[in-house]
Amino acid sequence: MTSDRSAAKASLGGQAVSIAIGLGASQLLTAVIFVAAARASSPQNFGVVAAAVSLGLVVAGVVDFGTSNMWVRDLANGNSHIGEVSARATGKICICVLIFGVSGLVTIAGGVDWRYLAACPIGISFLLKQTADVGLRAGSRGHHYAISGLIDKATAFALFLTLLALEAPADLAMCIALSAGPIFGGAFSWIVTSPSLRVTPRSSFLKFWPWRRALGYGSYSSAISLQNLDVSLLALFGGPQSAGLYGAVTRWTQPMGMVSTAVSSASIPYIAKAPSNAAAIAQVRRTYWILGLAILACVCVASFAPVLVPLLVGDAYSGSVGILQILALGTIPAVLNQPMAVFLQARHFDRFVSVVIGIGVGVQLTSLIGLIPLMGALSAAVAFLLAQIVIFSGFSAKFARLRRQMM
C-alpha cells in the first residue's frame, strides 16, 4: 500500500513538472510574440490587437462554461462515459462556431476595426484545443499534455516569424499565429489520446445539453474568462494607449501562472479519486516546491521590471514598468489560488469556488473601471492584485475549516 501511494505521488509530481516545463515554455513563446508585436507597433495600435485577443478568449471561456474541467473530473472518477462527453462537446463547439460567426458578421456590418475579427478564429481554436485535451488530462497523460502545449505555441511562434519574414504587418501576423497554433496542438492531443478517452464528433449531439450539471464549474470558468476583459475595458474607458501599455506586459507573468496551471491540471484525476480530503491533500503535497519556484520567479520579475521593460519593448512603453511590477506581485497569490480552486472543485466544492471567484472578479472589474480616471493603465494591474487577494482570503478560510474538520 505504501509503495502504491508513493508511486502515485511520484507520478503526480513527474506529470506536474512535465506540464510546468511545457506550459511555462509555451507561455514564454507567447510572451515573445507579444513583445515582438508590441515593438513593431505603437501602444495605441497594439492596444486594439491585444483587446481582440482578450475578447476571443473571454467568449470562448464563457462558451466552455467549465465543462472541460468538469469532464476531466467525471471521466477520471467514472461518473461519465466518453460517448456522452463527445456528444456534449460536439454541441458546444457547434454553438461556439455559430456565436463567433454571427459576431463576425455584426463586426463587418458595423464597420468596426477589422482587427477585432481576430477574436473569432482565436476563440474557436482555443476551444477546440481545450476540448481535445480533455481525454489526455482525464487519463493522467500529463507528459503528452505538456508536449501538446509546446506544439501549440511553437507552431504559433514559427508561423509568426515566417509571416514577419514575408513582411506581413506584426499585428496581422500575431493574430494568424495565435489562431493556428492551438489547431496543431489540439490535433496532437487528439491523436495520442487513448481511443477509450478520445473526444470525437457525434451526430447525436442534439440529444444532449452541453452544459448539464456544469453550473458550479461554469460560474467559475465564466468568471475567470471575464478577467480577460481587462484589456478591452481599458481600451473602452482609457483608450487604446492605456490598453497598449498594459497589454504589452500582461503576458510576461503568464509563465508563472502556467506553472500553477500545471500543478492543477496534473492533480485533478488524483484529487477526484482520493477517498478523503486528507488523502487528496497528501496526493498533491509533493508539488508544493513547484509553486515555490513560481513565486520566486514573480519576485524576480517585479525586481527587474525597470530593466526588462525598456530592454524588451523600448522606451515608448516606459509606463509599463509599474504595471509589470504590480502584475508580478498579484501573480503570487494567483499562483496559489488556482491549485486551491481545482482542489475544492475536484472535492465537489465547486459552487463555493464559483462564489469566491465571482466576488473576486467583480472586485477586479469594478475597481478597474473606477480607477481608470485616477491611474490610467496602472488601474488594471492594481485591480488584478486586489482581486487575487480577495480570492486568496476566501480559499484560505475554506482550507482552514477543512483542516479543522480533519483534526
UniProtKB/TrEMBL annotation:
Topology of the protein relative to the lipid bilayer: Multi-pass membrane protein
Subcellular location: Cell membrane
Coiled coil keyword on record: no
Gene Ontology CC terms: plasma membrane
Pfam families: Polysacc_synt_3
Membrane-spanning parts: 12-36, 48-72, 93-110, 172-192, 288-313, 319-340, 352-372, 378-397
Keyword match Membrane: yes
Domain of life: Bacteria
UniProt keyword terms in alphabetical order: Cell membrane, Membrane, Transmembrane, Transmembrane helix
Protein name (Swiss-Prot/TrEMBL): O-antigen/teichoic acid export membrane protein
Organism: Pseudonocardia endophytica
Lineage: Bacteria, Bacillati, Actinomycetota, Actinomycetes, Pseudonocardiales
